[in-house]
């Protein structure tokens, strides 16, 4: 997967009150601007149906080190609904995806 001037989603999971998103950023991509764009799409879709803010301010980020296993990190991310006891199997939770599927 080649990412130069964009961001590629590797995996995500939507939780009841937050999201986890693993993305590969291109060399000249600004993380804050990318997150702002990602937040803007659902905000625009919900603007007529939602009262108040959709997102909390800011975000928490973690850059993977070279020694960290990318697929293991993705498995950890998509397993969040299991650890939160929302489901007993990921097959029962529709709000996640990963490029390795």
What does this 3D model show about the protein?
Strands 2-1-3 form a three-stranded antiparallel β-sheet, with helices on one face. It is 29% helix and 18% strand. With 101 residues, the chain is an alpha+beta fold. The two termini are 15 Å apart. The mean pLDDT is 89. The chain has helices spanning 31-46, 70-78, 80-83; strands at residues 7-14, 19-25, 96-98. The radius of gyration is 15 Å and the shape is globular. It has one domain: Transposase IS200-like (Alpha-Beta Plaits, 2-Layer Sandwich), CATH 3.30.70.
Instruction: Look at the structure and give the mean pLDDT.
Output: 89
Rg value: 15 Å
The name of the CATH architecture is 2-Layer Sandwich
CATH H-level superfamily: Transposase IS200-like
What CATH calls the topology is: Alpha-Beta Plaits
Going across the biggest sheet, name each strand in turn. Answer: 2-1-3
Order of helices and strands: EEHHHE
Number of domains: 1
Output the CATH class name: Alpha Beta
> What's the β-strand tally?
3
Taking pLDDT < 50 over at least 5 consecutive residues as the criterion, the unreliable ranges are: none
Give the DSSP E fraction (strand runs of 2 or more residues).
15-25%
Instruction: Summarize the amount of helix as a percent range.
Output: 25-40%
SS class: alpha+beta
Tally of contiguous helical segments: 3
CA-CA gap between termini: 15 Å
Describe the largest sheet. Answer: 3 strands, antiparallel
Q: Can you give keywords for this protein?
A:
101 residues; alpha+beta; Alpha-Beta Plaits; three-stranded antiparallel beta sheet; 3 helices; globular
């Amino acid at each position: 997967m080649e990412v130069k001037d964009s961001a590629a989603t590797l995996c995500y999971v939507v939780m009841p009150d937050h999201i986890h998103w693993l993305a590969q950023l291109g060399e000249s991509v600004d993380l804050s601007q990318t997150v702002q764009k990602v937040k803007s799409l659902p905000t625009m879709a919900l603007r007529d149906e939602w009262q108040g803010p959709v997102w909390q301010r800011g975000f928490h980020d973690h850059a993977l080190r070279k020694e960290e296993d990318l697929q293991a990190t993705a498995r950890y991310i998509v397993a969040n609904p299991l650890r939160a006891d929302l489901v007993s199997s990921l097959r029962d939770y529709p709000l996640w995806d990963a490029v390795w599927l």
